[in-house]
Amino acid sequence: MTVIHAATGSNLKDEVERMAISVFQHKALRNDFYDRWTTRSLPAEEVRVFAIEYLSRTIRTSEMVALSVVNTVDRTARVECVKNLFSEYGGGNPEKVHLTLLENFLTDLLGRVSGRPVTIDELYREPPLTSTRSFSSGQRELFTSGDQRVVQGALLAQEWLAYSMMVRLYEGVRNYKSYYSSEEEFHERCEYFYVHIGEAEKEHRIQAVESASQVCADLTDLARVQVGFDGFLDLTVEYWRGVVARMREAGAPARGLETRAHAAAVPAARVR
User: Fold this and answer.
1) Which fold has domain 11-271?
2) pTM (two decimals)
3) Through-space distance between the first and last CA atoms of the chain, rounded to whole angstroms
4) Which long-range contacts (CB under 8 A, 24 or more apart) does 232-236 make?
5) Mind telling me which Gene3D superfamilies this protein's record contains (predicted)?
6) Domain extents in the chain
7) Backbone phi, then psi, for 93, in 5-degree steps?
């Protein structure tokens, strides 16, 4: 939990920013999932788990931003949330809606590593993990809170995690470049990440600080923002913990086959 320093008036924005940057040291970003995802190319079974669970988690993102508009009373704070929502929906271009870009990316990547076409309907039909459902229900509870300060705290955590999450996910995707015919093809397929790593998430972070600051008139307000902030981070920790555990389970049979194949190949090589 972030320690709140004594502050009043304009200094409260500094406290909100201090709260925001605390995500960089949190287990929501420093965890086994990211270690696994960024350091190796994983078998199709594990990539499929990631695709299903990440899609199930992310499908609610724009909805949560919309709820932050509805459940925030302060007009200036609402304006910042609306800017965020407009960006999520591709700036008015249906083809650039962030969820659409994600769907295109996931089906393409999973199809390549699986060696067969994968449809988005196929992924949506898969039931998510209990831990993923818990994340979604907890997220909704935070964003529908009757306390706009809690709502803004949750939005602050969501947006400050998002940029760093995108960077780490993209670094992991680079492990699959061999599945693409050229550098150009790989980068063309990664538009979802470039939209976020570019301006979108940077702007969202600024907007989230502004909107959270607008609902903070004193330290009591700041403490309530902290409740929403910490709540979202805690949900995220458990979400990634569930995902990586399921990935390990799914990948175990594939790793067993590789081990047996290698063991069989060694004696054969010696005979030759």
Assistant:
1) Heme Oxygenase; Chain A (1.20.910)
2) 0.85
3) 62
4) 232/139, 232/142, 232/153, 232/154, 232/157, 232/158, 232/161, 233/23, 233/26, 233/28, 233/157, 233/161, 235/134, 235/135, 235/138, 235/139, 235/142, 236/28, 236/135, 236/157, 236/161
5) Heme oxygenase-like
6) 11-271
7) -105, 110
pLDDT in tens, the chain (272 residues): 544 444 444 689 999 999 999 999 999 999 999 999 999 999 999 999 999 999 999 998 888 888 888 888 888 888 888 888 888 888 899 999 999 999 999 999 999 999 999 999 999 999 999 999 999 999 999 999 999 999 999 999 999 999 899 999 999 999 999 999 999 999 999 999 998 887 666 788 888 999 999 999 999 999 999 999 999 999 999 999 999 999 999 998 766 555 554 445 445 545 55
